[in-house]
Design brief:
alpha+beta; 22 helices; about 10% strand; three-stranded antiparallel β-sheet
Length: about 650
């Protein structure tokens, strides 16, 4: 009879506790390492200009130190892990002290010292048998099990045969094939603990486990690609279309499901603050289409950020804005993927440009020169007028430092910031070509697999140097430089749009598609930065496809043609059975041969005979597999009549 074993239960408990505490401690140590020992570069807190110092200081404050670990989930997991670790140590010491999983020991069962004499054995047996007798312990399975073990132990010490078996095999019943015990503690069998055990079982099986499964499923089922909620995707599908404008996108982003709980204004003071900010941001806003408080608040906060009026925000509103900006990159990527699904090139390009404005903290009517640190509208006006005046950021970077305007009121340190920023901003060369892989000539024929290879060369990087973080002092989080490569038709349909994230100096991205019908086509190629305004590249890609019928006819090599007649492995197996056909079939074949000879029909060649045998084998294989069709039967009949 199987018995509950405390030592085995300790081993089982050790296994389950280890499954939790090992990955948990790994996660905890990793978080402590990031909080206490991570470098500034690892958390993106770098200050290449004085304009980035404030951003770097805030990142250090929010991403480093023990205060960054002050989250309810982390603290709860830490407490649980510490308690389970203490339990692990206690179980480990218990296993160490008790030794192996309990084996049959008659002296231990009778509570005797090893080597006790017969008198002590009988006395102990009498005492324990009376104590655990089933008549004195009704409805107590633990007492019944103990009584049986006591009787078995007494037999092992008093019966010569049982004693010999115990000394030889460790069991009074003789050699055992396998000794099995239940890895659960013995107190579960105690009648006094019956209600507690049943209640615990009920809570765990009916409450805890279903609740854990429901919680995991309900949370995981909310999120789709890029860790964006499905409700956000539905919102984007509803509002994004080929006619969407950039000035409408802040409102679309504000309606994301990720912000709905955070941006719900619950106090009168909060509503009044949003109203005051709305008055200042309204001249730069499109008329709101949605008056829902969540969408309106997010829209107002984003416009305050884009128009550089965040100084009027309260601390709570600034935190809400930072919360939105933290998820803005992934949400804008999701908006672009929705536009890709809708095949709307114009909408996708507008979403990309909106992401540029968000990264630089500027808006549509602002000059590109506002991406330079310390520049205001006054410096922009001076830099864009008069001799050597420039309108675009590219032209300004191309000027010599001595020719750059708008620096008269700046200190030497501020001028150095501007010169440094000009070296950090991208200087790229875009090249593209169209070709067909493994083609015999340079022409493109209908149905060919075409490749548009786009090469991005970062001229501002040295050989082997990698592109660093985007210079975006106003964006409160680190952002990696990337480029969007889009190919579309002149009718505004997307063929391909991808985000190229490689930081290398030279990056090649390939777009593959099937060549359309015969004719001359023109496609639009767009390469846009994910974070900088004014560095976008557009070009047209021409493609002329020829009629595929002018290509020479493909002729199968004789050796390849013979391979088609070779039997498959299944057919070879069936041929082995065909060779053992019945005598009646052989007689029919011989009769038909005689008839053929009498009729003057020529004898089949070896190749024709082999082909006929192969056809017969295939028919028999299909018949054996149950795949015969009516058409096969009809063809057989026709062949018979033809003969």
């Amino acid at each position: 009879m199987l018995q509950y074993d405390d030592s085995a239960a300790a081993f089982v408990a050790l296994s389950f506790v280890t499954i939790y505490i090992v990955p948990s401690w790994y996660t905890i140590i990793k978080k402590f390492k990031v909080a206490l020992f991570s470098s500034d570069e690892e958390i993106g807190a770098i200050s290449r200009t004085t304009a980035e110092k404030e951003k770097a200081a805030k990142l250090k404050k929010t991403s480093k130190g023990l205060k960054t670990l002050n989250s309810p989930w982390f603290l709860a997991n830490l407490v649980i892990t510490i308690l389970l670790t203490a339990l692990f140590l206690w179980l480990f010491l218990s296993v160490q002290s008790n030794g192996e999983v309990n084996s049959f020991d008659p002296f231990h069962i009778l509570d005797l010292d090893t080597g006790a004499d017969m008198k002590e054995i009988k006395k102990a047996y009498k005492k324990m048998s009376l104590k655990f007798h089933p008549d004195k312990n009704p409805n107590n399975p633990q007492a019944e099990a103990t009584f049986m073990m006591v009787a078995k132990a007494y037999e092992a010490l008093t019966d010569p045969t049982a004693k010999e078996n115990y000394e030889k095999y460790g069991n009074p019943d003789g050699k055992q094939s396998l000794a099995v015990s239940i890895g659960l503690p013995e107190f579960l069998l105690n009648v006094d603990n019956r209600n507690f055990v049943l209640l615990s079982y009920l809570i765990i099986m009916v409450g805890v486990i279903p609740m854990a499964v429901w919680s995991y499923y309900s949370n995981s089922s909310k999120f789709g690609e890029k860790d964006v909620m499905y409700d956000s995707y539905a919102w984007f599908h509803h509002n994004l279309n080929e006619h969407i404008l950039i000035k409408s996108l802040p409102e679309v982003l504000s309606g994301s499901a990720e912000f709905r709980e955070r941006n719900m204004t619950k106090t009168v003071e909060g509503k009044q603050e949003i109203g005051k900010i709305l008055v200042k941001a309204k001249p730069h806003m499109q008329k709101p289409q949605f008056q829902h408080p969540v969408v309106l608040k997010g829209n107002v906060l984003l416009h305050a950020y884009l128009t550089r009026q965040t100084d009027v925000l309260s601390e709570a509103s600034q935190e809400d804005l930072n919360f939105m900006l933290r998820y803005s990159s992934s949400l804008i990527d999701a908006m672009i993927s929705v536009c890709k699904h809708q095949e709307s090139l114009a909408a996708a390009l507008n979403c990309i440009k909106f992401g540029q404005y968000v990264a630089q903290g500027m808006w549509m009517k602002d000059s590109e020169l506002l991406q330079l640190p310390h520049f205001t509208s006054a410096e922009v006006a001076h830099a864009t007028k008069g001799k050597n005046g420039v309108k675009t950021i590219k032209d300004y970077i191309a000027l010599d430092n001595d020719s750059k305007k708008g620096l008269a009121d700046f200190s030497d340190a501020q001028k150095e910031d501007i010169f440094k920023t000009c070296t950090l901003l991208p200087d790229v060369t875009i090249e593209s070509k169209v070709f067909v892989d493994d083609d015999e000539d340079s022409n493109v024929y209908e149905g060919d697999l075409c490749t548009v290879a786009v090469t991005i060369t970062r001229n501002n990087l040295e050989d082997g140097e990698k592109a660093g973080l985007v210079h975006a002092p106003r964006f409160p989080f680190p952002k990696r430089e990337a480029w969007w490569v889009a190919l579309g038709t002149t009718q505004g349909k997307i063929i391909s749009i991808d985000k190229v994230t490689s930081p290398n100096k030279v990056v090649e991205h390939k777009i593959k598609f099937l060549a359309p019908k015969t004719g001359t086509y023109e496609f639009e190629l767009h390469v846009l930065s994910n974070a900088y305004v004014g560095f976008d590249f557009s070009d047209s890609v021409e493609l002329k496809t020829l009629d595929a019928s002018v290509l020479p006819e493909y002729k199968i090599h004789p050796d390849d043609a013979e391979l088609d007649d070779e039997p498959t492995l299944f057919e070879e197996m069936m041929n082995a059975n065909i060779e053992d056909d019945s005598d009646s079939e052989e007689e029919e074949d011989s009769d038909s041969d005689d008839e053929s000879e009498e009729g003057g029909i020529r004898e089949l060649t070896a190749a024709e005979r082999k082909k006929q045998e192969l056809q017969n084998a295939r028919k028999k294989a299909a018949s054996a597999a149950g795949d015969d069709s009516d058409s096969d039967d009809d063809s057989d009949v026709e062949e018979v009549h033809a003969d």
